[in-house]
Write a structure and sequence with these properties.
Number of domains: 2
CATH architecture of the largest domain: 3-Layer(aba) Sandwich
CATH topology of the largest domain: Aspartate Aminotransferase, domain 2
Helix content: 40-55%
Order of helices and strands: HHHEHEHEHEHEHEEHHHHHHEHEEHEH
Strand content: 5-15%
Largest sheet: 7 strands, mixed
Bound molecules: pyridoxal-5'-phosphate
Low-confidence stretches: none
Oligomer: single chain
Number of helices: 17
């Protein structure tokens, strides 16, 4: 583990204050929404200095905005990163983070147990950009090692895999990556910085879909990528980061900006060119979300633990894949990497495949059937017919699910109400089985 600074505020304090001082002109205590496209330059010289990246100042809100900047700094602070860049969505953050460091012919070793949209994105980028990607069982450390090639530039996985609940051995995978001169990037959406900070275990880049727990109320799409600032991009394997960039008048980002080299390139080139900027209003909502992140995550974990333990006791339910359960194969990894709890998104199986899954979801009232997670409201989905619909049966198995898998995102309601609703659903599935055999 990296050493912590000697004196610092606690996580809950930083979730409320990091990256912000009261606005100097008005004294506004809340973070103002700077709903502006652009900023008046003091004079032509300072304008030129901003565009040359010789001085850091606001130019245009596709690249930087003061409201968005507070959000970026706050997430970076909570994740113990050097800095961060916000994007219009989680997938935009991932695409830009990859775009910044990879060129055609580069190879990625990736966990196969990813958010369905991330698998689709990686496969699409593979075809379009000529990348090589090997998807592997993330639990098999020998496979991470054996999959390395001379052109492997990145190892990629999720802190808590979706929807199998695989807890990634972050420290071990980081060690494998760095011994090979490759970077290690982690999607930590399901853990949030409250439950786990992958940079403390050696990750170089951490991404979040802010759409989920960070916002917490299912109102806004957004994403963020933060970087530790410690990876040696000048190790000879990343000329695209280290060498003078033709996309920025010959600037050598790593040499010029050191710890901030990758982040500056992510912003000044990738965000500039891909253009998927976070809106100031969404940043404002995500900041409201972050203020209560510690409180909400503690309650999410409490509710999820109760629901998972209850489900495990029911007949007609198998494979409750909550890493916080004593029965989980990921129990030891969860203890190490997720000491405050294993989040609130997990899946279980209903024997009876698609028909049982459908009947169960139809019978629920309080749980909302929709394609999102990490909301104050409890959510349910049948991955095989929705989020993982683009995947073949083999890919479903590789992602650790089946046709009867149900995924829950346990919200903040009173847990007895949540359990009562699930009980109604299970009874309905039993009825269906009884009718079928009658
Ligand atoms: C939702 C999600 C994403 C994608 O984020 P968007 O904000 O929907 O683009 C990526 N990874 C995980 C784990 C997610 O849950």
């Amino acid at each position: 583990m990296r050493e912590r600074p000697a004196k610092e505020f606690g996580f809950d304090t930083r979730a409320i204050h990091a990256g912000q001082r009261p606005e100097p002109y008005t004294g506004a205590r809340a973070v103002p929404i700077f709903q502006t496209t652009s900023y008046v330059f003091e004079d032509p010289d300072s304008a030129a200095a901003y565009f040359n990246l010789q001085e850091y100042g606001n130019t245009y809100s596709r690249i930087m905005n003061p409201t968005v900047a507070v959000f970026e700094e706050r997430v970076a602070n909570l994740e113990r990163a050097a800095g961060g860049v916000a994007f219009a969505s989680g997938l935009a953050a991932q695409a830009a983070a990859l775009f910044t460091m990879l060129v055609p012919g580069d190879h990625i070793v990736s966990s196969a147990a990813l958010y369905g949209g991330s698998i689709t994105q990686l496969k699409h980028l593979q075809r379009k950009l000529g990348l090589e990607i090997t998807f592997i069982d993330p639990d098999d450390l020998d496979l991470w090692r054996a999959s390395l090639r001379p052109n492997t530039k990145l190892l990629y996985g999720e802190t808590i895999g979706n929807p199998g609940g695989n807890v990634l051995d972050l420290e071990a995978v980081a060690t494998i990556a760095h011994a090979h001169g490759a970077a290690f990037m982690v999607d930590s959406t399901f853990a949030t910085p409250f439950l786990c900070r992958p940079i403390e275990w050696g990750a170089d880049i951490v991404t979040h879909s802010a759409t989920k727990f960070i916002g917490g109320h299912g109102t806004s799409i957004g994403g963020v990528a933060v970087e530790a600032g410690t990876f040696n991009w000048s190790n000879g394997r990343f000329p695209v980061v280290a060498d003078p960039s033709p996309a920025y008048h010959g600037l050598a980002f790593h040499e010029t900006f050191g710890v901030y080299g990758y982040l500056m390139k992510l912003r000044a080139e990738s965000l500039r060119d891909l253009g998927a900027a976070m809106s100031p209003f969404n940043a404002f909502l995500f900041l409201l979300g972050l203020e209560t992140l510690p409180l909400r995550m503690a309650r999410h974990v409490e509710n999820a633990s109760e629901v998972a333990a209850w489900l495990e006791r029911q007949d007609g339910v198998t494979n409750v894949r909550y890493p916080g359960l004593a029965s989980s194969p990921y129990r030891a990894l969860a203890r190490k990497y997720l000491p405050h709890g294993a989040g609130s998104i997990f899946s279980f199986d209903l024997p009876g495949g698609r028909a049982a899954g459908r009947r169960f979801i139809e019978s629920l009232d309080l749980w909302s059937h929709l394609a999102n997670v990490g909301d104050a409201k409890s959510l349910v989905i049948h991955p095989a017919s929705t989020t993982h619909r683009q995947l073949s049966d083999e890919e479903l198995t590789a992602a650790g699910i089946s046709a009867g898998t149900i995924r829950l995102s346990v919200g903040l309601e009173s847990s007895p109400d949540l359990i009562e609703d699930l009980e109604t659903g299970l009874r309905s599935v039993q009825q269906m089985r009884a009718e079928a055999t009658a």
